[in-house]
Write a structure and sequence with these properties.
Chain A: This is Alpha-ketoacid dehydrogenase subunit beta. The structure holds two protein chains of two kinds. Chain A is an alpha/beta fold. Chain A has twelve helices and 14 strands. Classes of the chains: A alpha/beta, B alpha+beta.
């Protein structure tokens, strides 16, 4: 076991990928000389040189398009988009090319492209750098959407993503970069197909991902003090969504609270709630509830930002209300 | 439904010991409530005529109105059948929104029942329409309501004033309650710990002399001296007697010491011995004996569970040498006594064998500091050196 930060886990993952496969390279804004705007790629330029750690102009559609082309031509690009807000400029390449070419060519052209993006709020970076758009990408057939919440997933999901013949997006939460965790050295790979139960409980299922996971675990700890045992599920993969694990949990707890830093309307949390209504209605002993971000552009002011994002107290209160409505 | 401790969320009214229209006075035992601590006698805190008794055998949240009491002399306004008791002339308690909700729901026509509960009701052959309001949001019927309805009710003895129901407590429930309270304590309360050794010889000798002339049932146990010594010390240092609530200390009204009692089936309770500072030793001894008996056999009173302002635990003769306690929130102190045992001890520069007792203090650092804690322990020590004036 070793204790490392999430940022370091991301860095190790990229370094290992570069060492393992000469077709692999990194491309993005400020990934080289600057070391990445969240310092994930720090030191890689020195080690691997400018051919494989490529600084690009500020042109997201160009970067993603070059990534699609490189992937089509047989390389294994790791594209970094500084924050998922900026990825909207690259949406045409991501959706109309990366996600579609395999289908449009009848399987003749695969696009083994990996795009890493920073996501989420909580560091006072204001509305243009703080949104959680992974739920949008989870809407698009042809993409895989990964949301590592632990150092283990940050360390090992990239290799699985690169091994996938189709485009994979990895959303790294900006608050998690500084989070520390134990990395089990005996684990050398993770799957990118299943959700995981991170804490077992019998009274309520807390379903979340990314930076909402540690908040749910903290909430579960508090709830345990009140005699409420929460099952905490880390989705890990938003597309394809592992509905079976969620339903299996709800079958045990009969109550579900979804915690999602995205906006509520039309979100991944809405998708999960719809699936529960569709496939697990007769397991539900209470309405499916959600704790999501306030439907405003994420504010800059610290108090307002905190008020807009899901917090542990919100999760505890919502769970308590589901369990003890009369109390 | 009274709160019988910080860890209690709901209680089940199992028996009324009075009838509607009976005259009651403050302190009367009027009902029996079943909690995870066993069957508890509920005392009333008002004088008057009791009315609108709630139905028995129903689990309700703390704060639910169980009955209304109107001042003696005031005419009763009998509520129309089915009307809410809240229309009474002077309801003493308020009706909480959670109680209103089921009534509203009951008027909607369609049964509010969760999908899971509906399915389970079908499987178990439970008639949903006959269930009434459930325990869920807005009175919705949930799984637990259906499952409770499917279970045959235990035959309850006919209610008659004066008799007591002894419901066995569920050790698993108690374990969960202890886990919740102690978990909360360790999570929220920044404990600090102090320990000291007390020369207990004066107390042992005084007890031997006192007990020599007494019949066995009137003999005093060392525990009663410890209890009284704590009360004396708390008189001098009231900062330790009370609760940490809403971000600050609130002094207790009276020194009501929660006495930790281990139960034979496992688990423990710490019911209050009231106004310890104002009782003589023989009186306290009787109170303590009776309390231990009732704690183990069932029949603790609501005030005994709700009132403790501090907890004292004494491991007794067969216990360990010392104990570092966990505070029972929202109290701010637990005092622990170990086993009295002969030890080498320095008296006037000479080594002697004395009876020595370890005392410990676990206190809430949000309320007091170690310096003051040390003074409290010193005051307990000092009191035990003069058992004759306790």
């Amino acid at each position: 076991m070793s204790r490392i930060t999430y940022r370091e886990a991301c860095r190790q993952a990229i370094r290992a990928a570069l060492l393992a496969d000469p077709r692999c390279f990194v491309m993005g804004e400020d990934v080289g000389r600057y070391g990445g705007c969240y310092a994930v790629t720090k030191g890689l330029l020195e080690e691997f040189g400018p051919q494989r750690i490529r600084d690009t102009p500020l042109a997201e559609n160009g970067i993603a398009g070059a990534g699609v082309g490189a992937a089509l031509a047989g390389l294994r690009p790791i594209v970094e988009i500084m924050t998922c807000n900026f990825s909207l400029l690259a949406l045409d390449q991501i959706m109309n090319n990366a996600a579609s070419l395999s289908h449009m060519s009848g399987g003749q052209f695969a696009v083994p492209l990996v795009i890493r993006m920073a996501t989420g709020g909580g560091r006072q970076l204001a509305a243009q750098h703080s949104h959680s758009l992974e739920g949008w990408y989870a809407h698009i057939p042809g993409l895989k959407v990964l949301v590592p919440a632990t150092v283990e997933d940050a360390r090992h999901m990239l290799a699985a993503a690169l091994a996938d013949p189709n485009p994979v997006l990895i959303f790294e939460h900006i608050v998690l970069y500084n989070a520390e965790g134990e990395l089990d050295d005996t684990v050398t790979a993770v799957d990118i197909a299943h959700a995981k139960v991170r804490r077992s409980g019998s009274d309520i299922s807390l379903v979340s991902y990314g930076n909402s996971l540690p908040k749910c675990l903290a909430a579960a700890e508090q709830l345990a003090g009140e005699g409420i045992q929460a099952d905490v599920i880390d989705l890990r993969v938003l597309r394809p969504l592992d509905g079976a694990t969620i339903i299996e949990s709800v079958r045990r707890t009969h109550r579900c609270l979804i915690v999602d830093e995205g906006w509520r309307s039309g979100s991944i949390s809405a998708e999960i709630a719809a699936r529960l209504a569709d496939e697990a209605l007769y397991e539900l002993d209470a309405p499916v509830r959600r704790v999501c971000s306030a439907e405003v552009p994420v504010p800059y002011a610290a108090q307002m930002e905190a008020a807009a994002l899901p917090q542990v107290a919100d999760i505890v209160a919502a769970a308590r209300a589901l369990l003890r409505p009369a109390g | 439904m009274p709160s019988l401790g910080a860890d209690m969320e709901t209680g089940k009214l199992v028996q009324w010991l009075v009838k509607a229209g009976d005259r009651v006075k403050s302190g009367d035992v009027v009902a029996v409530v079943e909690t995870h601590k066993g069957a508890i006698d509920v005392e009333i805190f008002l004088d008057g005529i009791i009315d609108n008794l709630a139905a028995v055998d129903k689990e309700v949240p703390v704060g639910t109105v169980l009955a209304t009491v109107r001042p003696p002399g005031e005419t009763a306004i009998m509520p129309a059948p089915g009307a809410a008791p809240a229309v009474l002339a002077t309801p003493v308690s308020v009706v909480t929104p959670s109680e209103v909700a089921p009534r509203i729901a009951a008027n909607l026509g369609r049964t509010r029942i969760s999908p899971a509960a509906r399915l389970r009701a079908q499987q178990l052959g439970v008639d949903v329409a006959a269930l009434g309001a459930g325990s869920g949001e807005g009175g919705a019927i949930g799984l637990r309501d259906v499952e409770a309805a499917a279970r045959p009710l235990p035959a309850s003895p006919p209610p008659s004033a004066g008799s007591t129901v002894h419901c066995g407590f569920d050790p698993a429930q108690m374990r969960l309650a202890i886990a919740a309270a102690m978990g909360r304590s360790k999570r929220e309360i920044p404990h600090y710990y102090l320990t000291d050794s007390i020369d207990f010889t004066a107390a042992t000798q005084w007890l031997a002399a006192w007990n020599a002339g007494q019949p066995p049932e009137q003999r005093l146990l060392p525990a009663v001296l410890l209890l009284k010594a704590c009360a004396r010390a708390l008189q001098a240092y009231p900062q330790f007697n009370g609760f940490y609530l809403d971000g600050g200390f609130q002094a207790g009204k009276g020194i009501h010491i929660g006495w930790a009692i281990a139960l034979r089936g496992g688990g423990l309770v710490a019911p209050a011995i009231h106004d310890v500072d104002r009782q003589g030793l023989p009186q306290l001894m009787t109170a303590m004996r009776e309390l231990v008996q009732r704690a183990r056999a069932g029949g603790l009173r609501s005030s005994e569970l709700g009132d403790p302002t501090i907890t004292v635990t004494s491991l007794g003769e067969r216990g360990a040498e010392s104990v570092l306690g966990v505070i029972y929130p929202p109290q701010v102190v637990i005092i622990g006594f170990g086993r009295v045992q002969p030890r080498p001890w320095v008296v006037n520069g000479q080594l002697a064998v004395r009876d020595v007792l370890a005392v410990s203090l676990a206190a809430d650092h949000r309320v007091t500091d170690g310096h003051l804690g040390g003074q409290l322990l010193a005051a307990i020590n000092e009191a035990l050196q003069h058992p004759d004036i306790l």
